């Protein structure tokens, strides 16, 4: 597939997650709650997650922000549900490397799915914080849960 076609496809995936966010909302009692914001641009997220027996069994988010920030939150929740905590943290590290334009390694246990659509953000340093906000919230929540 030509680069322009791939770029267009990635934009469509991002806009789909922005306009039709997955896992939007919040979870009731017993869930981890993290509120974070990006003071530079005003993006904010309220992330709730359920972790049972070392596994992320559910995750939801609410917030306001640009298409990159909200699409990333949608993709992140979709990706971590069903993962054990260690795998979710590994995915976050891989995402961080990818979004900064660094080399990253994938093994058979890693499926980035729609997240790959955000790799082009690495060309826009001012947008990296937008893309990583939900992931930083997830890392904070899982670290505090331990």
TrEMBL record:
Domain of life (superkingdom): Bacteria
Pfam families the record matches: NifU_N (PF01592)
Domain NIF system FeS cluster assembly NifU N-terminal residue range list: 10-130
InterPro entries: NIF_FeS_clus_asmbl_NifU_N
Record-linked CDD domains: IscU_like
NCBIfam families associated with the record: SUF_scaf_2 (TIGR01994)
Protein name: Fe-S cluster assembly sulfur transfer protein SufU
Organism (species): Lederbergia graminis
